[in-house]
Amino acid sequence: MYQDEIKEAVRNAYSGISTGGGHPVARRFYSESELAEIPEGSIEWALGVGNPVRYAFLQPGETVLDVGSGGGIDTILAARRVGPLGTAIGLDIVDEMRARGRRHAAAAGVSGWTEFLRGEMEAIPLPDGSVDVVISNGVLNLSARKSRALAEIFRVLRPGGRICLADLTVEGELPPEVANDQSAWSG
Q1: Residues 48-107: pLDDT tens digits?
Q2: Are 149 and 119 in contact (CB under 8 A)?
Q3: N or C end of the chain: smaller count of CB under 10 Å?
Q4: Where in the sequence is the domain holding 88, given as residue range(s)?
Q5: DSSP, residue by residue, 156-167
Q6: What is the CA 167 to chain-centroid distance, rounded?
Q7: What CATH number does residue 42 fall under?
Q8: What's the structural domain count of the chain?
Q9: What is the DSSP string of 15-34?
Q10: Which residues lie below 8 Å from residue 160, measured CB to CB, with a gap of 6+?
Q11: CA 107 to chain CA mean position, Å
Q12: Closest by alpha carbon to 26, among 11, 41, 13, 10?
């Protein structure tokens, strides 16, 4: 598959789903106290593979970028950690996900210092050196251009900035029937 085909398959897959993994997924990665900080709607859209916020050691006043923010769980948790003197930015290519993230951030009471941008991880619409921390949860694996996505992440980081990713990896080569399957790329 070509890069544009992969990108379109991922966008279509995530635009077309009717719900996330809900509590069964969220409880695997987030503590009860963390889940208590997140609106129910955001929990219903849990699609991640880990909890990057827990290990990012966010500080009040920092600017955090959540690459592939989805329904907003990690963006909201990050916003709570950086507080109103900081900024939490969710980045997603799917309009429906950004709209959900905005609704969930408003329900969580963090919308005053939270924003959701439209954009791709391979072309982040932020200036060089503009964020302190980049987090991502199960999204980098969706890119056909992982090295480009990582270069963009490092471009937007301030000197001394940090990155905390939770993701899936594959050891070895995938069989062609998997590597060329649209549902495998978006799953």
Answers
A1: 999 999 999 999 999 999 999 999 999 999 999 999 999 999 999 999 999 999 999 999
A2: no
A3: C
A4: 3-186
A5: HEEEEEEEEEE-
A6: 10
A7: 3.40.50.150
A8: 1
A9: HH-S---HHHHHHHHS-HHH
A10: none
A11: 19
A12: 41
Which residues have CB under 8 Å from 15's CB, separation 6+? Answer: 94, 95, 96
Between 19-23, 34-38, 116-120, 161-165, the lowest mean confidence (pLDDT) is in 19-23
Give the per-residue pLDDT at 11: 61
CB of 157 closer than 8 Å to CB of 163: yes
Token pair, residue 151, equals 């270069």
Cβ atoms of 135 and 79 closer than 8 Å: no
pLDDT of residue 144: 83
Q: What is residue 141's predicted lDDT score, i.e. its pLDDT? A: 83
> What are the Cα distances from residue 13, in Å, to 8, 68, 97?
8, 14, 12
User: Structure tokens of 19?
Assistant: 């719900």
Only one residue has tokens 């309009």, namely 95
CA 141 to chain centre: 12
Q: Whole-prediction pTM value?
A: 0.89
Q: What is the distance between the terminal CA atoms of the chain, rounded to a whole angstrom?
A: 15
